[in-house]
Amino acid sequence: MRIVVDLNRCQNYGQCVYAAPEVFHFSGPESIEYDHAPDPGQEAAALRAAVACPMAAITLGEAAAL
Questions:
Q1: Rounded-to-integer distance, Cα 36 and Cα 1, Å
Q2: DSSP conformation letters of 29-62
Q3: Which terminus of the chain is more solvent-facing, meaning fewer CB atoms within 10 Å of its CB: N or C?
Q4: Which of 1, 62, 42 shows the shortest CA–CA distance to 16?
Q5: Count of beta carbons in the 10 Å neighbourhood of residue 22
Q6: What is the mean pLDDT of residues 55-61?
Q7: Single pTM value for the model
Q8: Could you give phi then psi for residue 60, rounded to 5 degrees?
Q9: If pLDDT is split at 50, 70 and 90, which confidence band does 65 have?
Q10: Mean confidence (pLDDT) of the chain
């Protein structure tokens, strides 16, 4: 799996951090970092984060497709 966050859309609400703390985390007061290629066991958490994002800034896909 590959994760891409559109940083132009992201408003740092942090819903992804709460939904998938093993994939997303705050690196400062207004900066989110994430694992671009999480382990297969974290796919459900990444999906929860994408669904929770109020700005629809998170895209999930196959590693080779994105």
A1: 8
A2: TTEEEE-SS--GGGHHHHHHHHHH-TT--EEEE-
A3: C
A4: 42
A5: 13
A6: 96
A7: 0.87
A8: -115, 145
A9: low
A10: 92
